[in-house]
Amino acid sequence: MSRSNKDTSIPRRPFLWLAFALLFTLPPMFGSLASWVPSLFLVALAMKFWMEPRGYRLRVASLKLILAAVALLGIFTTYGSLNGVEPGISLLVVLMSLKILEAHTAREFQVMVLIGWVLCLCGFILSQDFTIAFCLLIGFALMLVALVQFHRGSAPDALWAPLGTTCKLLVQAAPIVVLLFILFPRINTSFRFELRSIRSATPGLSGRLSPGSIATLVNSSDIAFRAAIPDSKMRLPGSIYWRGLVMWDCDGMEWRAADAPFPISRSTRQIRRGNTIRQRIMLAPHGARWMFALDRPVEAPPGAILARGDYISSVQTIRKPRRYEVVSSAEAAKNELGPIERREALHLPISISPAVRALAQSWTAQNPNPRAIISNALQFFRTQGFRYSLSPGEYSKHDLEEFLFRRRVGFCEHYAASFATLMRLAGIPARVVVGYLGGEYNDLGHFFLVRQSDAHAWCEVWLPDTGWVRVDPTSAVAPERASLDLNSFFERRTAFGDLGSRPSAFVTKLAQSVLVTKIRLALETLSYEWDTRLLAFDSDVQEVFLGSIGVASQGRFVLVIEILIIAATLLVTYFGWMQLRTGSRTDRAKALYERFCQKVARLGVRRDPWEGPSDFSLRAAYLLPEESERIRKISNTYIALRYASEPAAINVDRFAKEVRTF
User: Fold this and answer.
1) Considering only CA atoms, which of 153, 48, 37 is closest in space to residue 92?
2) pTM metric for this prediction
3) What are the pLDDT digits (tens) for 459-477?
4) Tens of pLDDT along 426-439?
5) Beta strand pairing status for 249-251 and 293-294?
6) Mean per-residue pLDDT for 573-587?
7) Taking the CA of residue 399 as centre, how many other CA atoms within 13 Å lie in the half-sphere pointing to its CB?
8) Which of 24, 48, 301, 374 lies in disulfide reach of 324, CB 3.0 to 4.6 Å?
9) pLDDT digit string, tens, across residues 218-237
10) Regarding predicted confidence, which is higher, 204 or 34?
11) Contact in structure between 145 and 11 (CB atoms under 8 Å)
12) Phi, psi of 467 (to 5 degrees)
């Protein structure tokens, strides 16, 4: 094929590989960018497959400028600015879409491959999840396949040979990649970064508990955190409460946490001993400061404080995934309740109705003992027709009487808020705790996966002989809720008959099948290992690892020099091995070809020193027409052995036989 013909059309097979590769860059786009941006990208790919066989393309320069201007206007209208991660990547995707429509030369094909690799990098910036990273790796590899296919041309074996060549290139590059990953100095804390707004992107708990605030999370499959128990490979017995933040400010059915958490000083804190549980938690970013641990944490991890109410609060806002270790104790500390804390734990709004006050006073008059009052309150919820529902209808913060005496339908936040208010009316200090209940235990990876759908609210009351004690009024209405294990998200959605939409029986059965469950647990385990071992490999972990293998840290400059020396040594060793491997094959082929030339010379055709194998073959075949077929065959075999990237070993033996019988 001449150069002019080659540069006026895109080879079809490489373009198919490229189009297939670009599809793997779409998952992070649909999850992060405006939906019309990746949709436009898909439409451009589809149009290209329709236009290319017909010779159509985007030719008119003025039309290109108009489309580019419309794209800029659309991006500005969508995001309100052209600055930022999402607008910048959206602009690149739109320009790539236009490039796909206008491309018609082989040179432009190579440009699209380069832009495709940039899109893979942009996709990793948008999301570092394991599944997204795996898709981007496949896309990156397929773009390399497309480039190899492009340079190979339309050979008969050009369909599968590029795949093999790409695999060899990736395997050869893997040691260098691993070396750089382990040894290269870290500029950032880790490979996890979040450049988008957390609050607008991720649903979760907030510092205010109002009717419906937790019920809205029940259908969310977003991960709140993963927690491993290093000292145990078994699921924890009993109900598992993950403590989040504590709320003191009561306004009927609405409770609020303090804007600035008050740290507990060591002098006033009584450290709990005995049965402690150590946890390693990988917390997803949520745009707030509270952190989670088993009820209740003993000490705060570095960069956090143990706030009043025995919950952990981060010093900085959690805007990217955070890994920490914390120790909790099942035994409550018997600290005295100070006058300020007691006043806050008994504060009530003036809007409480007389009927609600009379209810609490009736329990106090019946038996003033705090434990008896708590028992009567739980019995009230258990026997008066209260129902646990995901869709109890709308309540305002002043509808406490409506909830207790008329409707009697609610979710965990309704029961926690109303119970804590009733306890304060009865003279018992009370507060509300929000966090998560249960979670799915992964037997393969030995960790708990806690989703936003596991969000829960419960109460704590202060008793003179024991201190703060957990009371979960939801368990009086729905006892199975405290021991509910989220084996699958579909089970959670179908656990209540009042859900608006329910999956079919086939989908539910499929989700609960052994094979699907094992695959899901395996993917979750891979994702957990990806997060904790690769993305969390920050400068601190790197320093500990290098110390464990005897590589003392001597500064970044010295470490970079050491990396370059090791990398250069590996490259020299590799190229030397490749030269030694191919040298013996080519030397044998060259010796056989020189022997062939000597035989042809005895027939009257001598090869000139400057004459190449192809030119000599043409001249010898012309001068020796009776041997022309054998001369061409031997010459073609030698050319393949001498210049092909990876010929089969059998060709050398066949070539020797052909030369010997000539």
Assistant:
1) 37
2) 0.74
3) 999 998 888 999 999 988 8
4) 999 999 999 999 88
5) unpaired
6) 62
7) 18
8) 301
9) 888 889 999 999 887 777 77
10) 34
11) no
12) 85, -150
The length of the chain is 662
Strands 290-291, 293-294: pairing kind: unpaired
Q: In one letter, which amino acid is 615?
A: D
Total Cβ atoms within 10 A of residue 255: 26
The whole-number pLDDT of residue 555 equals 59
Instruction: Tell me which amino acid residue 370 is.
Output: P
Residue with tokens 């128990």: 229
For the chain, what are the domain ranges? 3-183, 201-511, 557-660
Residue of 294, 277, 280 lying closest to 227 (CA atoms):
280
Tokens matching residue 555: 């500064």
- DSSP code of residue 297: B
Torsion of CA 457, 460, 461, 463, to 10 degrees: 160
CA dihedral 236, 270, 468, 350 (to 10 degrees): -140
R_g over Cα of the chain:
35
* 3 state SS of 399: coil
114-123, 140-149, 152-161 — which is least confidently predicted? Answer: 152-161
Query: What pLDDT, on a 0 to 100 scale, did the predictor assign at position 379?
Result: 93
* Strand pairing class (387-388; 409-410): parallel
> Computed from CA positions of residues 74, 77, 79, 84, in that sequence, does the dihedral angle turn out positive or negative?
positive
DSSP conformation class of 534: I
As a whole number of angstroms, the distance between CA 321 and CA 404 comes to: 40
Q: Output the CA torsion sign for 264, 270, 271, 277.
A: negative
Sign of CA dihedral 149, 26, 115, 70: positive
Q: What is the pLDDT of residue 193?
A: 62
Find all residues with CB under 8 Å of 587, minimum gap 6, and list them. Answer: none
* Average pLDDT of the residues in 51-80: 86
- Residue where the block lists tokens 């009379």: 358
Q: Judge contact between 17 and 81, C-beta under 8 A.
A: no
